[in-house]
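Figure caption, in words: inputs first, then the predicted bound structure.
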Amino acid sequence: MKCCGVYTFVRRFGRPYKRNRLNNKYYYKEAYINMKKITAILLSAAMLVPMAACSAQQPESGKEAEGSKAAESSNTSVSSKADENRETVFQVALLQSLTQGYYDGIIKVSELKQHGDTGIGTFEGVNGEMIVLDGKVYQALGDGSVKEADDNETVPFSNVTFFDKDLSVTLPKMENINSLKETLTKTVNENGKNLFYMVKINGTFQKMFVRSELKQEKPYKTLDKALATDQREFNYENIAGTVVALYCPDYMGGLNTPGWHFHFISDDKTKGGHILELAFDSAQAEFDSTQDFDMYLSDNSDFQKMDLAKDVSSAIKKVETNEE
Ligand SMILES: [Zn+2]
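Bound structure (zinc ion present):
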């Protein structure tokens, strides 16, 4: 009963045919839609093959550093947890909580290392400046010495990431830190100013003016007051080493400081600190751009009582740059 079959078909599906305006042909509606779906599935499947290959290759192409993501990357288009973790800037607390005097460590150094091999920060009681480089956490103390931080030392503020070089730039002669900031910002603007960047700058520095600070005891003063008496400054000349720099996007003003924050460690790991000024003839800068941001907070009641929306930007500028 062919006829009945067609009738049932029409009744069940209403208008079974759809006219294609382009070629004036009629297609059965559901089949037409299904074909669209099938075409879409086929297209995305066809695209997935090169995409999967691409995503597996991407970490390799721009990231030549040993121990890069390529080594840990799976061959699927879905990135593994380890990959996501490598592409994350991990932040302990806020620069605003540190600036307001919250110096209690909320994470152990051993735990911080699980979140990155490169970065900056400080230690409980602001006991020196932190430089994280090649998976080691260094503590540049207020007496000018540098030691590798104990795994049980705790951290009130830090930013770390697993460093995978995305691009490399040869920097020309720089007379001061502001010229360096401008030059690095050009590269950031070309590559996306709303991402995070961890940057390593290797070279010999004609001038390297850094500071650290003496360990604070409770009750803690605010950071600008602590630094007013307990900041120690060190001026080095012709020193070989690495600048570890963090770039935070403009919108990070409530959680950190927008723009650049530089720490330094010498090649022999005996000198370092928070950079106040520098100069060099030439240096190599390696950029790691990062799309994910992860922040770790304290559940301590003192931390919970803090007014972290309070505008402390002028105090931050003062402690970061030594400028009023
Ligand atoms: Zn610093």
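Residues 29-62 form the longest helix (34 residues).
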